[in-house]
Design goal:
This protein is an alpha/beta fold. It folds into three domains: 82 residues, Multidrug-efflux Transporter Regulator, Chain: A, Domain 2 (Orthogonal Bundle), CATH 1.10.1660; 78 residues, Methionine synthase domain (Methyltransferase, Methionine Synthase (B12-binding Domains), Chain A, domain 1); 123 residues, 3-Layer(aba) Sandwich (Rossmann fold), CATH 3.40.50. The protein is built from 14 helices and seven strands.
């Protein structure tokens, strides 16, 4: 009797694909966008549609990453090779007397586990979990699918009075530590374009800038990271001294947007025309119109840093998309 393989007809929306593959929609989008894990079709309305074959491949990729492999290591394998690898893993676990893959599930479950550790003030357990997820997912997917959503959830819980300021601060501190620790494992080529990342004077929230810097490094930029609250003249000086091709700024929640907008405009004026300036973060949305008027690119969320390279000479500023930081932050 002839058995056909999974259907190649695009028919399932992302929610169905996520449920059947065992991934969260966030992780699915990251794997699709950054690693081209699958290539779904689009409906007439622009909705992603996945085939049974796509879903089976995603399911196998998830299984391949559970024991600790990075998605970047296994995404190049064919679906048949992934199925063989999953079978080998199952056999190895059975021989070792293990019923399930070790610790990590998927990013969505990881975020829930991290929240439980935050509520319990379990700093050791939280840091271990975050480091594990960063190792398995890779730096940029970890930021987009775990770190940023976790900080958003903690921020929401703080606003609702269900978490303390101490819990919010310990989460931010550990996320920052894990991201910084993961950066040395990503090396840009010697001839990579240079980028300066900072927050402008008056913006003291650093994490969004750190996320942008880490993602840029992972995408092949040589980054000079300056941290928070830098005057325009200092940022411009560093950009000139390092030969940077551009500057990326993070703005989260300016209480007085006027002075920060003035700083950003001053930086644009201080930079040569051939150096791009892009501003992102939750606070960028409220400044977008005025920034674009000044010839400054705006990313309300973390740019796809492959697209960011399109801002190198001979391109005009434009909006970019992708996860940067949640809108609701203190």
């Amino acid at each position: 009797m002839h058995e056909s393989g999974p259907s190649t007809e695009p028919q399932h929306p992302i929610g169905v694909a996520a449920e059947r593959s065992g991934l969260t929609p966030d992780v699915l989008r990251v794997w699709e966008r950054r690693y081209r894990a699958v290539r779904p079709q689009r409906s007439e309305g622009g909705q992603r549609l996945y085939s049974d074959e796509d879903i089976e491949r995603l399911r196998l990729l998830r299984l391949a990453t559970l024991p600790g492999r990075r998605i970047s290591q296994v995404v190049k394998l064919s679906t048949k090779e992934l199925a063989r690898l999953a079978e080998e893993d199952t056999t190895a676990r059975s021989r070792a007397g293990l019923d399930e893959p070790v610790p990590l599930r998927v990013a969505g479950e990881g975020v829930e586990q991290a929240l439980a550790r935050v509520r319990a003030y379990d700093t050791v357990g939280l840091e271990w979990l975050l480091r594990r997820m960063a190792a398995v997912l890779g730096l940029t997917p970890f930021i987009e699918a775990v770190a940023a959503p976790l900080l958003c959830r903690v921020g929401d819980e703080w606003h609702a009075g269900r978490m303390t300021t101490g819990q919010e601060h310990l989460t931010t501190s550990l996320v920052r530590r894990v991201v910084i620790a993961a950066i040395p494992g990503v090396e840009a080529p010697a001839d990579a374009p240079r980028l300066v990342v900072a927050t402008p004077a008056g913006e003291r929230h650093e994490v969004g800038a750190l996320f942008a810097a880490a993602a840029a490094i992972a995408d092949g930029w040589r980054v000079t990271y300056l941290g928070a609250d830098l005057p325009a003249r200092e940022i411009a000086h560093v950009a000139a001294a390092t030969g940077a091709r551009g500057v990326a700024l993070s703005v989260v929640s300016p209480r007085e947007p006027g002075p920060i907008l003035d700083e950003i405009r001053a930086l644009r004026a201080a930079l040569p025309a051939e150096r791009f300036l892009i501003v992102g973060g939750a606070g960028a949305a409220g400044l977008a119109a005025k920034l674009r008027e000044a010839g400054i690119a705006v990313a309300e969320r973390l740019p796809d840093l492959r697209a960011l390279k399109a801002l190198l000479p001979d391109t005009s500023p434009t909006a970019r998309s992708g996860a940067w930081m949640c809108r609701r932050r203190r």
